[in-house]
Amino acid sequence: MPKFASxxxxxxxxxxxxxxxxxxxxxGWLDQGLQNEAIHxxxxxxxxxxxxxxxxxxxxxxxxxxDIPKRLKPSIIIVAVKxxxxxxxxxxxxxxxxxxxxILSIAAGKNIAFFEDLFGKKQAIIRAMPNTPAxxxxxxxxxxxxxxVDDDQRRVxxxxxxxxxxxxxxxxxNLMDAVTALSGSGPAYVFYxxxxxxxxxxxxGLSPELSRRLADQTVSGAGALxxxxxxxxxxxxxxxxxxxxxxxxxxxxxxxxEGIAKVIxxxxxxxxxxxxxxxx
Length: 280
Known about the structure:
CATH topology of the largest domain: Rossmann fold
Order of helices and strands: EHEHEEHEHEEHEHHHHHH
Strand order of the largest sheet: 3-2-1-4-5-6-7-8
Low-confidence stretches: none
Distance between the termini: 41 Å
Shape: elongated
CATH architecture of the largest domain: 3-Layer(aba) Sandwich
CATH superfamily of the largest domain: NAD(P)-binding Rossmann-like Domain
Oligomer: single chain
Radius of gyration: 22 Å
Largest sheet: 8 strands, mixed
């Protein structure tokens, strides 16, 4: 059975929000065989959608949820708007036939209870936390489902999210705060590492332009090697570290008691704590 066979023009996807993440997912769905007529999009800014996805017809684009035909019976509702806009966007959904749909939210800071308060505890809801590399198909998304989500809804949701990277599932929603601290916020840590490496290279005499290029390519290349090799990060680190060599000298500093491990743990604890605050 094709992975998107249950998604048709009669039971389409309703994508609420088509910004960077929504657009990345939409491109992945179309590329992997989802029929264009099986998609309806709600977004007030429609020109970029028309330009980038000409196969999406005008009748499938809606500026607000109130513009959607009441007869529409979506099978999956993807919520990809900013958290501060979500309450207003979702309030109008109650006018549609969504009882049999699964609501799949990729917005940060909104837990399952938020959606159950709006739609009831019998509504199938999946909370997902993607990260920004999903915009280039290299993301990781972690999901938690409530009890009404059935096996088919979980399978199809996984297939949709896998178009932008790998998908993992957890059974305890409390773990989503740790997920946010690790993979959700994690790309920013890596980008900052490239920043500080470039600044350090400049302090050693390299030009700003050369130092930035070397740092950026080193970080992206190391990530690509980690992805392609199948080896653990620890093994790859050991492979490049010769006893008494230059890398070992640097790692003596980074791996000291006051080194990067302690800083990263503290940073992620703060990110987890803030995630808890935003969800409360």
